[in-house]
Design brief:
Elements: H1 2-19, H2 35-52, H3 58-64, H4 67-72, H5 85-90, E1 95-96, H6 102-109, H7 118-126, E2 133-137, E3 144-149, H8 152-155, E4 156-158, E5 166-167, E6 169-171, H9 180-185, H10 191-197, H11 201-211, E7 215-216, H12 220-223, E8 236-237, H13 258-269, E9 276-277, H14 288-293, E10 297-298, H15 309-318, H16 331-343, E11 362-363, H17 365-368, E12 383-384, H18 408-418, H19 425-437
Parallel strand pairs: 1-5
Antiparallel strand pairs: 2-3, 4-6, 7-8, 9-10, 11-12
The protein binds heme C (HEC) (2 copies).
Length: about 450
């Protein structure tokens, strides 16, 4: 009887798998589960969210901070001189060439576009061509009503195919040119932030001005710390948002999973209309600002973030780190450097293929030989082993959470001392070539 059933089952499985080679069925996960198809749909939806969704945050950036008025300038109903495309590019904003009509591309090539005129910035916003920024226009379309931001603002670059700062999107790349502090500092009204932090507006502006390119401070609105004890900015580098599949803890200081962080950023940092729950933020000693603002339990109705989290999560995990271009490193030296990487036990923490530890990928500041300032601004009080894939894409701004090591050679020198490696100059060079090849 048992035998007979098994045989029947086999026949059924065979028929099913034959049937499933047909175009209408890609199904090898059981009835009703077309996993590839569903994953593709999630990736497409997640990409759209990553690139274009403001989660309703224009209520903050536009309606409250009035950033749109500074962008358009007084000529179009705002305030001040306005932001020209030249200024926008200088603070690291990027333009998506695929959103531009052919005629405009031609005109840009011929140098016939006025890059000093804020009117051109408004035209680019209307085309939805400024990466990570959405302009909301008045019904007549002559002036801005509000402005919102997206994930792509900080986590996308372009390939500069048309001109520096203008090209095809590179989703997931860290925008190390972007001066977030300078951009936010343009806002005419920062009183809401000042009130939240219980400081005056001038202090907020001082903190923002100190961030510099490629940096943002995700913890400022939690603990109110604008500067480190040594007087330098408390902001950290914008990390890439690719190469994260298989990585357990995220962010420099291991706040949680990718989807925890996505909900955190969309709701608490971008000020989208979302739901965010994390009781660790109720700790008034570590997070005085967050605790009194109730950031440990934020609710919004309607919730414009939570419905998008599943697809955004899948998209984040699907973004692979781009391979290092041929010629950007010496292959022979990199092969030798790989040996140095493993003989120096770099791989005990940076374990391939994720280049972080499978498991609890967090270390004490003392283990790494660095100060604990930034570690202490997150619940786990440690530093997360940085995934190293795609390092070549973010050499600008330096390495480690705050960019304290300007070059990969400086990182290697630090480990040489910290772990007593006694590497020869040649070994150090080879190790750097290997890091550039990842
Ligand atoms: C204003 C700039 C900015 C925006 C906008 C932004 N991020 Fe980030 N993102 C950062 C910074 C800075 C960090 C590092 C934070 C830290 O470690 O404290 C980070 C960290 C991350 C990480 C962790 C990466 C890693 O190595 O583990 C992910 C994932 C991420 N962001 C995804 C997103 C998504 C998705 C959005 C949109 C919902 C978004 N970010 C919006 C600046 C930004
Ligand atoms: C004890 C675990 C550990 C060991 C061993 C280790 N690392 Fe790291 N590594 C880390 C952590 C944690 C960070 C993140 C530090 C930070 O955010 O400030 C890091 C960061 C880095 C970075 C900077 C990444 C970035 O995005 O800025 C590089 C490069 C690096 N390590 C290379 C190496 C090399 C090469 C070795 C061997 C000589 C090595 N690591 C050994 C834990 C380790």
């Amino acid at each position: 009887m048992r035998r007979k059933l098994t045989a029947v089952t086999w026949v059924l499985v065979c028929v099913a798998s034959l049937a499933c080679t047909a175009a209408w069925c890609d199904d090898d996960d059981g009835p009703g589960h077309d996993t590839e198809h569903a994953a593709r749909a999630l990736i497409a939806a997640g990409r759209h969210t990553f690139r274009f969704d403001t989660f309703g945050d224009e209520a903050f950036w536009g309606d409250t901070l009035r950033l749109h008025q500074a962008i358009e300038g007084s000529r179009f109903g705002g305030v001040g001189a306005g932001v020209s495309p030249k200024t926008a590019l200088a603070v690291g904003l990027k333009v998506d060439v695929d959103a531009l009509p052919g005629s405009l591309i031609q005109a840009l090539r011929r140098g016939q576009v006025n890059l000093d005129d804020p009117a051109t910035t408004l035209a680019l916003l209307k085309l939805n061509a400024v990466i990570g920024v959405t302009g909301f226009f008045t019904p007549g379309g002559t002036s801005l009503r509000s402005v919102g931001i997206q994930c792509a603002l900080c986590h996308s670059a372009v390939d500069n195919s048309l001109a520096p700062g203008i090209g095809h999107r590179l989703d997931g790349w860290a925008n190390r040119d972007l001066n977030v502090g300078a951009i936010v500092g343009l806002a005419p009204d920062l009183s809401t932030v000042a009130t939240l932090l219980r400081v005056d507006e001038a202090t907020v502006r001082k903190v923002l001005a100190a961030w510099g390119p490629g940096k943002f401070d995700a913890e400022l609105l939690l603990d109110g710390k604008g500067f480190r004890p040594d007087g330098k900015t408390a902001a950290t580098l914008i990390p890439p948002a690719f190469g994260l599949a298989g990585v357990n803890l995220h962010t420099w200081v291991g706040w949680g999973s990718v989807t925890h962080w996505n909900a955190f950023v969309a709701t608490l940092e971008m000020h989208g209309k979302g739901t965010f729950f994390d009781p660790r933020l109720a700790d008034a000693e570590q997070f005085p600002v967050a605790a009194r603002a109730g950031f440990d339990n934020v609710r919004n109705d309607p919730d414009l973030v939570s419905p998008k989290l599943p697809a955004l999560h899948v998209y984040q995990l699907a973004l692979a780190a781009p391979a290092a271009p041929r010629g950007s490193f010496s292959a022979a030296a990199a092969a030798r450097g790989q040996q140095v990487f493993s003989s120096s036990h770099c791989d005990s923490c940076h374990a391939p293929p994720t280049f972080t530890e499978p498991g609890w990928n967090l270390h004490t500041p003392a283990e790494l030989g660095v100060d604990d300032f930034e570690a202490n601004r997150a619940p786990a009080r440690g530093y997360r082993t940085a995934p190293l894939k795609g390092l070549w894409t973010h050499q600008e701004g330096g390495f480690y959470h705050d960019g304290r090591f300007a070059t990969l050679a400086a990182v290697v020198d630090h480990y040489d001392v910290q772990f007593g490696l006694h590497l020869s100059p040649q070994e150090k060079k080879d190790l750097v070539e290997y890091l550039k090849s990842l």
